[in-house]
Amino acid sequence: MTEPAARHAALVYNPVKADGKALRATVARLSAAAGWGAPLFFETTIQDLGAGVTRQALEAGADAVLVAGGDGTVRAVVEAMSESGVPLTIVPSGTGNLLARNLLLPLTDAAAMVQATFDGDRIGVDVGFAAIRRQDGTSEERAFVVMGGMGLDAAMIANTSGDLKKRVGWIAYVDGAARSLAGAKPFRIAYQVAGRRLHSAKVQSILIANCGSLPAGLELIPSASVSDGELDIAIFQPKNALGWILVWRRVAWDNSVLRRFRAGRQVLALRTEDNSVLYAHGTGLDVASETPQPVQLDGDEFGTAVRLRARVVPGGLITVVPKGHDTSRL
Q1: Do 60 and 140 reside in the same domain of the chain?
Q2: Co-location of 111 and 209 in the same domain
Q3: Structure pTM?
Q4: 208: confidence class by pLDDT, cuts 50, 70, 90
Q5: Which of 36, 107, 254, 325 is the least crowded, having the fewest Cβ atoms under 10 Å away?
């Protein structure tokens, strides 16, 4: 009787963000211990952030893929893996690791995540896709798993120093925010959540999120879930300095502190709502701007656009988590 072919894992890693030598050794050792064949290794490059080499891994017949890098690397790999049916293990590396944080994965134990590839549990994670239309009529569609945005949030990322981010991590975005706020101007959009009526608003930024948590315990969108089959939308429209204070209160205090406690939720129920931040959710969003605005997806810059059409693929990604991992809060 013919023996079944050995299974193989493929590791896609960003050599700038991950210790490639150590990680390759760990994947090789744990693959052998699990009875799998020799793993495949792929490095990302400036020209290929991860999507191209991931497609190579899938074409080579990889039975599982591991990714090690920052949020941009994870985004690119997921773009190639959506609806492939092949499980993905996220080995946290880099500064953000926002999908790993939202999945409540161990952030400092690479070996535990590698081991999960062979004996962990699998869950379905939604994948967002954003069709970006330029002013010249050209367009492209790209994936995101954390959040995308048009306006100030994208400008903040564009204004963040790459060198500073390497030195201090996600805190560098504070510097980018300060640079962006100085010249921030509201812009007019028309937007429509799938199945709802068309709206017009003057905004500073509009976010489309698959995840709601940011570093430092900040809850940008508390209701966001990676597995509910919907996208969450946050529209930021502060009219003055007081409006920005209300935005910060909503994110840093209301969402991140008060909502965790019953008494806090009672306080929020009694408070008069302000419209500095508006929330919505649905299976898609179509937003058009009168003027070209910067766009970001999972922290990657994607130039400027006059239209953004977002859709969700429910459960489009099979993600590996450690065996017995608590998924009740996802």
Answers
A1: no
A2: no
A3: 0.86
A4: very high
A5: 107
